[in-house]
Design a protein that fits this description.
This protein has four helices and seven strands. By secondary structure, the chain is α+β, with helices and mostly antiparallel strands. The protein has one domain: START domain (Alpha-D-Glucose-1,6-Bisphosphate, Chain A, domain 4). The protein has a seven-stranded antiparallel beta sheet with strand order 1-7-6-5-4-3-2. A hairpin with a 2-residue loop joins strand 6 and strand 7. The N and C termini lie far apart (about 35 Å). It comes from Nocardia yunnanensis. Pfam families: Polyketide_cyc2. This is SRPBCC family protein.
Length: about 150
């Protein structure tokens, strides 16, 4: 399994405008086909904030939790999934015409936990199918963020 997956999109808007959408974690369900809810716990979102999430894949709905591990306004937001250790991130890069928004999924330990790998193989059709769906979801998410920001 690759250690990272990545997708990016160019948005015709300043990083501050893109950031206002990306950093509003409660809105992720508007954009992501795999996230039904992301609820930050506590006051405001910052490094260290915990979230409770509800996700879906291939007809299955399941809860997860995560913790914000990087929060740099107008630049980067990343959260680590507590159940499997993967890190999901958004990076904003200024361009001549606006912002390039990059979404990544990293596997810092080099491999997923055995229970998850077995689930991917038996329930989600194997790595290629599972990761293909993740990348497709990333592209869909970024496209919807672009539409929202450019309106």
């Amino acid at each position: 399994m690759p250690n990272n997956l990545e997708a990016s999109i160019d948005i015709s808007a300043a990083p501050e405008r893109v950031w206002s959408v990306v950093s509003d974690l409660k809105r992720i369900r508007e954009f992501s086909p795999q996230t039904l809810r992301m609820q930050p716990l506590g006051r405001g979102v910052h490094t260290g904030t915990w979230t409770v999430n509800l996700n879906k894949a291939k007809g299955y709905v399941y809860p997860t939790t995560s913790r914000i591990v990087r929060f740099e306004p107008n630049r980067a937001l990343a959260f680590r999934m507590n159940e499997n250790g993967t890190v999901w991130s958004y990076t904003l890069e200024p361009t001549a015409d606006g912002t390039r928004l990059v979404q990544r999924r990293d596997v810092p330990k080099g491999k997923l936990p055995g229970w998850l790998q077995k689930t991917i193989d038996t329930v989600f059709g194997g790595e290629q199918s599972f990761e293909g769906a993740l990348v497709d979801g990333m592209h869909e998410t970024l496209g919807k963020i672009k539409q929202s920001v450019e309106r």
